[in-house]
Specification:
Distance between the termini: 150 Å
Shape: rod-shaped
Number of helices: 6
Helix content: 55-70%
Length: about 240
């Protein structure tokens, strides 16, 4: 919008953003000072108080962090500002009502009464039509964004499925290897327990041969010594 309509809308977006982050506000009963020839509009207190106007972009926000939802609503309002058409329409009336402290029947009527004298084309039909148009445009924006996020989600889910399958297959291979290693371990432990019985007969056999050999040599040496004694004694 141009600077002139922005000024006439009491500071575009500032009031609507402010209402989003205020927990409680007393309903505002505007005191409208009529312009020359302008009829006085009567207002009622507490009619349809809507301090955080809904944009129908979420179905259920009860489970979402309140601060995150509020920050996102500010972004939605900024989108709304970008698609705002020149001149006075629903958005300017909505924002002007918020400038009065809260959005309710009284503040909307007062804002409409004031702004229709700035823009003669402003009437109820225009408010309803442009309000519905903004809903449609916002829905298009969120539908496009949702579609893009869904594609991103689908890609992440595919990566998740693929990585999960790879990890599952690797775990199965490792478990199979563990079973094989466990079987091999058991076999080696059994061999370790039986290792003595495997080598003991060979060791005993060698010990016996050593003993026999030494005994035989000792006896032969004794026989030789005896023969030498005989020779020493009996041969001149």
């Amino acid at each position: 919008m141009s600077e002139e309509p922005a000024n006439k809308s009491f500071g575009l977006l500032k009031s609507l953003k402010k209402l989003i982050f205020e927990d409680s506000l007393e309903p505002f009963v505007p005191e409208v000072k009529p312009m020359a020839g302008q009829p006085v509009v009567e207002t009622k207190t507490g009619e349809n108080v809507t301090k955080n106007p809904q944009t129908n972009l979420t179905q259920n926000t009860s489970a979402l962090p309140p601060a995150d939802v509020k920050q996102m609503k500010v972004k939605v309002l900024e989108i709304l500002e970008r698609i705002n058409e020149p001149g006075m329409d629903f958005f300017e009336v909505w924002n002007a009502a918020a400038e009065m402290g809260s959005v309710n029947a009284g503040s909307i009527k007062a804002a409409f009464t004031s702004l229709k004298y700035v823009d003669k084309t402003l009437d109820k039909d225009k408010l309803v039509r442009t309000g519905q148009d903004y809903i449609t445009e916002l829905q298009k924006v969120i539908d496009k964004e949702t579609s893009q996020k869904q594609l991103q989600k689908d890609s992440i889910e595919q990566n998740l499925i693929a990585e999960k399958a790879n990890l599952t297959a690797e775990i199965q291979r490792l478990e199979q290897n563990i079973d094989e290693l466990r079987e091999k371990l058991n076999s080696r432990q059994k061999e370790l327990k039986e290792i003595n019985s495997k080598y003991e007969p060979q060791l005993q056999d060698i010990d016996a041969k050593i003993t026999i050999g030494n005994t035989a040599v000792a006896e032969v040496i004794t026989d030789i010594k005896n023969a030498l004694n005989i020779i020493e004694t009996n041969i001149n």
